[in-house]
C-alpha cells in the first residue's frame, strides 16, 4: 500500500469530514486527500479573524477549487479570549480551542463525522499547545498518524498536483509577537500591512517581528543580499515605517521558522540532570 493509499484509507474510514483549512501545504494536502477519499462528503473550512494575513483567503479559495473540495468560511473570535490576548506560551492553545469549538459546531450541525487537521509528524518536535486543544476536541491528524513529516508532505503534494506544494509557511499574524506582549487588533493590522508591503516589493519568505515601535524584518537567505544593499535597505525600512512602526531594522541572520519557540523548545527537550545531595 502506498502512502497516499494509506492516508486515503484512513480518511475513508471516517465516512465524512471537515478539514481545518488554511490553504498552507499541510492542510491543502489533507483537503486533497479527503476529496479523493470521500468526495462530496468532505468540506474544507477556513476560519476568518484579524490574525489571518492578507491574501491567505484568496489563496485558500484557489487551492480548494484546484483540488476539488467544497469550501466554506467561519468566523472565529480568539481575541475575545483573555488567554489569547495575554499571549503567554499557551496562546496557541486558546487560538485552537476557539477554532475547534467553531469547527466542531459546524461539523455537528452539518452532520460530518470528524474534524481533520493538517498537523504533520514534524510538529510533534516543536512547542505546539494547539495539539492539546485538538485532542480535547477529538480532532484527527492523518499526517501525524502515518508519520508524515514536512518533506514528505511537500513530496506528496507535488505528486498530487496540489498548487500550494511549494508555498512557504504562513502561520497566524500573532506568531510575530513575542510571548508576553499583548495581542490586539491594531498590532495585528500593523504587522499585516508591513508584510504585505514587503511582498509587493518582491520578497517572498519573510516575517515582520513586532517589538513595540520597532519592526524587525526577517528574510530568507537568498533574499537577504538584496534587502541589505543600500537601495534595498532603504526600501524595506521605508515600507515598515509606512505601516506604522517608528523604526525598522533588518535581521542579518536568515529567517528560520519557529525561531520564537526555539529557545523554549530546547529547554523542554533538555535532559534532566540529577543532583547529588
Question: Mind explaining what this structure looks like?
Answer:
With 277 residues, the protein is α/β, with parallel strands linked by helices. The chain folds into 2 domains: 3-160, Rossmann fold, CATH 3.40.50.620; 184-261, Histidine-containing Protein, Chain: A, CATH 3.30.1340. It has 12 helices and 7 strands. It has helices spanning 3-14, 25-38, 56-67, 82-86, 91-110, 130-136, 142-145, 150-160, 185-200, 224-228, 230-242, 259-269; strands at 17-20, 42-48, 70-75, 114-116, 206-211, 214-219, 247-250. The protein has a 4-stranded parallel sheet, sandwiched between helices. A 3-stranded mixed sheet has the order 5-6-7. Strand 5 (206-211) and strand 6 (214-219) form a beta hairpin. The chain is globular. Mean pLDDT is 93; it is low at 263-277.
Name the features.
single chain; 277 residues; alpha/beta; Rossmann fold; Histidine-containing Protein, Chain: A; 2 domains; four-stranded parallel beta sheet; three-stranded mixed beta sheet; 47% helix; disordered C terminus
Largest sheet report: 4 strands, parallel
Give the beta-strand count.
7
Q: What proportion of the residues is helical, as a percent range?
A: 40-55%
CATH architecture of the largest domain: 3-Layer(aba) Sandwich
**What general form does the structure show?**
globular
CATH topological fold name of the largest domain: Rossmann fold
Kindly report the oligomeric state of this protein.
Answer: single chain
What structural class do helix, strand and pairing data support? alpha/beta
> What would you give as the CATH superfamily of the largest domain?
HUPs
